[in-house]
Amino acid sequence: MATIKPCLARWTRTGLVAARQQCRLQAASPTSLFSHQIRCASSPGSGRPKKGSEKKKKAKSASYTQHDLRDADQFSLCDAMRYIRAFEVGRDPTSSKYELHVRLRTMRNAPVVRNRLRLPHPVKTDVRICVICPPDSKHAEAARENGAVLIGEDVVFDAVKEGRIEFNRCLCHVDSQAKMNKAGLGRLLGPKGMMPSAKLGTVVKDVGASVRELVGTSEYRERTAVVRLAIGQLGFSPEEMQRNVRSFLETLKADMAQLSDQVSKEIHEVVLSSTYSPGFTLDGTFKSSTSVPSDQLSTL
After folding, report:
1. How large is the angle between the packed helices 138-145 and 207-215, nearest 10 degrees?
2. What is the 3-state secondary structure (H, E, C) of 8-54?
3. How many Å apart are CA 127 and CA 116, to the nearest integer?
4. Do 229 and 99 meet the contact criterion of CB atoms below 8 Å apart?
5. CA distance linking residue 284 with residue 74, whole number of Å
6. C-alpha to C-alpha distance for 283 and 105, rounded to whole angstroms
7. Using CA atoms, how far apart are residues 194 and 272, in angstroms rounded to an integer?
C-alpha cells in the first residue's frame, strides 16, 4: 500500500502545474487585458473627460424677459378696484394702500428711471426728513419749522454711522456738502437710496421750500425693469385714482423720453394691487360694461 507522503507530493506538483498554465492563458488572453484596461479607464479621477461632457452655461439674455399679454386677463380700473377691495374686507382702511407696478421693456445694463412727483391726491405716508446743515443757522430753523425730524451735521453723521437711521428722506444744504462727503455716508445711505446728491435735487439752497415739497411728494425708482409706487389710499374714489395713475404714467413716460438717446424703454404692463391683495393687470380703460357704479367704490 502506498504511503501518504508520495501521494501528497504528486497532488501538489499537479496543482502547481495547472495554476501556472492558467496564469499563462490569462496573461496571453486579449479579452482579459481589454477588460483590465476598461476597469482602469473608468476608475474615478483617471483619464480625461469626454469631449462635450461639460455642460454649457446658458447665455443670459441682454433684456428682461416679458410675458405675452395677449391671452392674459386684463381689467378696467373700476373692476380692479372692486376685486382689490374684496380682498381688503375687514382691514383697517388707513393701513392699506393701492400700489401701481409698471413693468418696462428695457435692457439689463441700461440706466434706470428715478424721480419723484407730487400726485394730484397725495398718499398719506409717514415721511421723516433729515436735513444736513449747520445746526445754528437760519437753514436749520427753516427745516425745523417745516417738520424735519433730524437737523445738524455732526449729530447726523454720528447717528448714521451708529446705524440709527430713523428717517426715510435726506436733504443737504450746499454749504454742508463738502463736510458730508468727507464723513463718508455714501456707503451707508447710498444702498438705501437716501444719499443726497445734486443730480437728484437733494442738495439744495432753500431748505425750507425743499422740505415742504418733499413732504407731499412720492419717490419711485426702477428695479429689475419694474417701477413701483403707492398710488392711493383704499378710500380713494375711482376718479381720484384715475387722476393719480394718469399723472404718474405721464411723468414716467417723460423720464423715459429723457433717456431715449441712451436706451429704449417702453411700458409693457401696468398692474394694480394693494397691501393684502394680488395684482390685476390694467387694460387702460376706466370702467367696463359690467362695472359697478363708481360711487359704490368710494365708500368704505
Report:
1. 20
2. HHHHHHHHHHHHHHHHHHHHHCHHHHHHHHHHHHCCCCCCCCCCCCC
3. 14
4. yes
5. 9
6. 17
7. 26
Distance CA 263, CA 55 (A): 34
Collapsing DSSP to helix, strand or coil, 113 comes out as coil
- What is the C-alpha to C-alpha distance for residues 107 and 118, in angstroms, rounded to an integer? 28
Q: What is the value of pTM for the model shown? A: 0.64
- 3-class SS of residue 228: strand
Cα–Cα dist 205/15, whole Å: 108
Tens of pLDDT, residue by residue over 159-189, are 999 988 888 889 999 999 999 999 989 888 9
CB 116 within 8 A of CB 219: yes
Report the amino acid identity of residue 131. Answer: V
The CA-to-CA distance between both ends of the chain, in Å, stands at 121
Check: CB of residue 167 under 8 Å from CB of residue 127. no
Coil, strand or helix at 106 = coil
Q: Which helix (H) or strand (E) holds 82?
A: helix 77-87
